[in-house]
Amino acid sequence: MDQTVYSKKKYGEMVKEISPQSHILANCLRAFSVGGTICVLGQLLTVLFVRGGLSIDDARLLTSVTLIFVTVLLTGLGWYDKIGEHAGAGSFVPITGFANSIAAPAVEFKKEGLVLGVGAKMFVIAGPVIVYGTMASVLVGLVYYFLK
Question: For residue range 44-99, what is the model confidence (pLDDT) as tens digits?
Fold first, then answer.
């Protein structure tokens, strides 16, 4: 038993020694700046679409579609991964992060074919988000319904 504790302690020391140092403040600033830039881009698109003559609802819809398209395009070109490496969690603003989580496995597994590659693997990452997000929204809806 004493040897097991020593092994765990030794292992912990080895992990700490070889793990890279995390620069929390710098990481947070990069995530904030990139995530904020994506959000500002979305707002800018909405304003431009409204000034172009669209209703606010149509402008918001077109903004979402545009952000999804740009994210999928950047993912396909391999650039969104580079943004993610720099920004960390900042690149996972909900709409762009979700689009990337669907497009990235599709690109990665395209060599396995349309059915067993792209079709089967496209929702590997996004699938659990959809399932648990739906379950959470149902539970919150039920709580809200019964409390009101």
Answer: 999 999 999 999 999 999 999 999 999 999 999 999 989 988 888 888 888 888 88
The count of structural domains within the chain is 1
Domain that residue 105 falls in:
34-147
Q: How many whole angstroms separate alpha carbon 89 and alpha carbon 30? A: 9
Q: In this structure, which long-range contacts are made by residues 7-10, counting pairs with CB atoms below 8 Å and at least 24 apart in sequence?
A: none
Cα angle 119, 125, 131 (rounded to 5 degrees) comes to 95
> What tokens were used for 69?
């398209």
Biggest CA pair distance of the chain: 74
**C-alpha to C-alpha distances, 112 to 74, 75, 98, 127, nearest whole angstrom:** 22, 18, 23, 19
